[in-house]
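Co-fold these.
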Amino acid sequence: MLLQLDRDHWLIDGNDNIAFSIRHQGNCLFRQQSPFQLIEVFNTPEYGKTLAVDGLVMCTEKDEAAYHEMIVHIPMFAHGCVQDVLVIGGGDGGTVREILRHPSVQAVTMVEIDEVVVRASCQHLPTLSSALNDPKLQLIIGDGIEYVQQAQDEAFDLIVVDSSDPIGPAEGLFNLSFFKEVHRCLRSGGVMTAQSESPWFHAQAFAALNQCLQTVFGQAYVHPYLVFIPTYPTGMWSFAYAAKDSRHPWQNCDHSQISQFTKKENLQYYNAGIHQAAFQLPTFVKTLLGEA
Amino acid sequence: MLLQLDRDHWLIDGNDNIAFSIRHQGNCLFRQQSPFQLIEVFNTPEYGKTLAVDGLVMCTEKDEAAYHEMIVHIPMFAHGCVQDVLVIGGGDGGTVREILRHPSVQAVTMVEIDEVVVRASCQHLPTLSSALNDPKLQLIIGDGIEYVQQAQDEAFDLIVVDSSDPIGPAEGLFNLSFFKEVHRCLRSGGVMTAQSESPWFHAQAFAALNQCLQTVFGQAYVHPYLVFIPTYPTGMWSFAYAAKDSRHPWQNCDHSQISQFTKKENLQYYNAGIHQAAFQLPTFVKTLLGEA
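Predicted complex below.
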């Protein structure tokens, strides 16, 4: 029985009242302080190699599929024919890897503010970073907020906001002016998804982000959805789907096409049944959104 | 930033490699060693009053609704007209409270092995134990395994196995001979649900319990479903639904009836959308069950 946990051997997330801890093996595979944050990679017995930013788990080899499959394939199949994609953040490469499974995609632009995250992943997390040298990808090390401010109108079919928590460098990815630019850069019929925190652990941030999106896209066109992610606090995580010009999140999906794709690509989490089910929210989550 | 967690101030669940911790306020509201286990009640700042058994969280005031609503209302609405119910375990009272929200229910028998759990809940968890003095309830302090062995054939429309983990007193609630008796005690068209652990944290126990149920009820009539429970390890928890004589888990549900009920009863988690969605499993969970 564990009697004591300490930061020399455990990655500990949480607050003063709850904690979620993953043991690592002491020796750090990678550690570098970037201009933005401390980037580390640890070996953990439970979840394999684990990327940590400022001491908090960003992703692990064993459970990252849930996050990356769900932030990507939901909007991909909701849209049906995505060609041009913008990813804000996502430096570990998992989101780009999932996007590039879709043959319709012609070009992906990824704007990651911290090149140290990309380097750590390329050096130590090959299963995540495998697509970062794909010829369809343009990788820009820079500020995603400035990028969307300067991007052309209606340049993308899909924009994925794969950010960390809304403190530090990702803070500006959770506000109205940013999402207005995202909306402007989407083509008619385009869609976006954003990492939107835990309805249990960050109830306020979750509600505020959805409120922002409703203001920009219209209330009827914003649809939060849920994913089980065991290495994030409380295990309940959310993404927000928003559509420019009313594209429904699941009504146009071709289930047999999804099934073929998920089998061929050997996905671990996403499937045709999950697609619609993820949008069904527990009542207390609806209440947070003012819906119940 | 938390530097260290210790058992004097934290309830810590997990194994050698991962830990889930809830801070309590030091003073224990209730502590008694029963013949089976150590029962404690703590005040926790994050989740309110918390019942712990052998140092592990059993339920908390703030998130217990997810567990109790989902283990009860899913089989209730799948069946449509439950009159006689047997609950094995469930000493805190939350399951009985949810069952007795349904006016069709005429009698509930609850068999809890540990009277100290019942006493702790009655003394300190009034929102959980509120229905334990209902005249429709017969509360038996005794062994649930012996009870079902001696129970009449086809005596119940619904049997809920609300057990703790399959170590200690609940071990015998996870095996073939127990579920054969449960099957025998169900009426034709009857249904059961069982707490079936976390597909992430107890993958083997989850798979083994479903295998048992498939052997007894037939593969097509066993349907696991998932619930977000933030105070259990990994946050992903499962229940197993099994039907005697093929009653489908959602196809006969009346959505408008569910919606009326959930509003009237002010439920926190379960709703008409969640009912079907909870049965949609991520691919890795299907793989554990040999389905993918």
